[in-house]
Amino acid sequence: MSDRKKLFIKTYGCQMNVYDSERMAASLDKAGYDQTDEVAEADMVLLNTCHIREKAAEKVYSELGRIKELRVAKPDLKIGVAGCVAQAEGEEIVRRQPAVDLVVGPQAYHNLPAMLDALKPGKPVINTDFPAEDKFDHLPDDRRARRAPSAFLTVQEGCDKFCAFCVVPYTRGAEVSRPVARILSEAKDLVSRGVAEITLLGQNVNAYHGEGPDGEMGLAALIRALAEIEGLERIRFTTSHPNDMEDDLIAAHGEIDKLMPYLHLPVQSGSDSVLKAMNRKHTAESYFTLIERIRAARPDIALSGDFIVGFPGETEADFQATLDLVERVEYAQAFSFKYSARPGTPAADREEVPEDVKSERLARLQALLLQQQRAFQESVVGRVLPVLLEKPGRKDGQLIGKSPYLQAVHLDAAPELIGTIQQVRIVSSKSNSLSGELMG
Ligand code: SAH
Ligand code: SF4
Ligand code: F3S
What is the model's pTM? Predict the structure, then answer.
């Protein structure tokens, strides 16, 4: 019998957590753990957590309560909390749930194997340090396994923007960009393992300014370098801040074929007084002007955004300004949330908009956004689009792929085509996906 153990990871929150979970699995692979999808057979459970809204953070404690019960059958089960709740709450986690053995912040994952070695029963190990060096240097993924056709690659982490509502600058720390050479070698490795599409990740990805061979390079220059990699067919990036959308990045959308026509550009609110109170440092008009410039460079670009309703001080007129902005922009996709006060952020002490007002505004905004999303889905019906085939669908003989506009497309196709881009005629649209037929 093999003496390898089993690791179960549950990932919450943003795509960076998905990427981090992969890297933690790679680093624990070396420490003797194989990943499993079955929590019941795990020797170690890691929750990679999110602190962005209260609900996200509270979910972690109810999940920990359930996981603790697995110790009845498996007394040696190790329980770890990683991610942004780990960073924000540290020791408090162990106080609230003493069954936790490990608390590890997002900048300390390279310490995981050593932390495991240090574990003694009843003595939790906590590490929420912010080391100066690049944590990814210590987390090489040399498993060489085949990968799914689409992968994430973190190029930038942390945020210096300090929006008044947001925990990210505290949980992820200051903005740090990875050097270009490391990103290129990681991208080449992914491509050699079957990856055709890479999504570059950063909390503020368009503020990327990594060290290149001849000085600092911005995101547009990085994308140009990545586009040279043979076999890498598609490049995406997320999430961008409107204030960091430089001219060369806008131009890149019209010039680089591999850069997909989809941009996630959160605005949060359409009211200038709310934007000011949020410390966003842009106005509704400057955002709209930016959108016009991006559309001039790439007329078919699909735009997506994030919205917060019920930020402290938001009046009905402020909210109406958000609806007006949405009407003007016409989003292909969007995410909207009720404001959630986060401890330690500047807005946390401000007087809150009543919950029923928040709920009512969210419903109105979501109705409008859904209408726009449906209209966008409908607009591609009848077109032939290049679709990257990614995985088997639910039905036999069916595959699921992705359009350039980040839409899921279902079609009948042979599994051998997974990982290739095919021309697909879009025949119908459902709320969350499209159906298509292979051409030729
Ligand atoms: N730039 C980041 C944003 C992370 S948070 C990124 O890389 O994605 C994602 C979204 O969550 C934000 O754009 C914002 O709309 C929302 N959000 C952040 N803090 C919030 C809070 N306190 N309450 C409600 N929504 C929040
Ligand atoms: Fe949070 Fe604002 Fe930074 Fe985005 S830009 S991570 S919303 S502080
Ligand atoms: Fe959540 Fe942290 Fe991402 S708070 S959204 S997991 S950066």
Answer: 0.96
